[in-house]
Amino acid sequence: MQSLPTDQLLTIDRQHVWHPYAAMPNPLPIFPVKSAQGVYIELEGGLTLVDGMSSWWTCIHGYNHPRLNQAARDQIDRMSHVMFGGLTHQPAVQLAQRLVELTPEPLQQVFFCDSGSVSVEVAMKMAIQYWYNLGKPEKHRFLTVRGGYHGDTFDAMSVCDPVNGMHHLFSKVLRQQYFADIPQIPFWGLWDDSDIISFEQLLAENHGQIAAAIFEPVVQGAGGMRFYSPDYVRRARELCDQYGVLLILDEIATGFGRTGQLFACEHAKIFPDILCIGKAMSGGFMSLAATLTTPHISQVFSQGEAGVFMHGPTFMANPLACAVALENLAILDSYDWQAKIQTIEAQLKQELAPCRASSLVKDVRVLGAIGVVELHEPVDMAVIQPQVVEHGVWLRPFGKLIYTMPPYIIEPAELSCITQAIVELTR
Question: Would you list the domain boundaries of the chain?
Answer without folding.
Answer: 31-64+339-426, 70-333
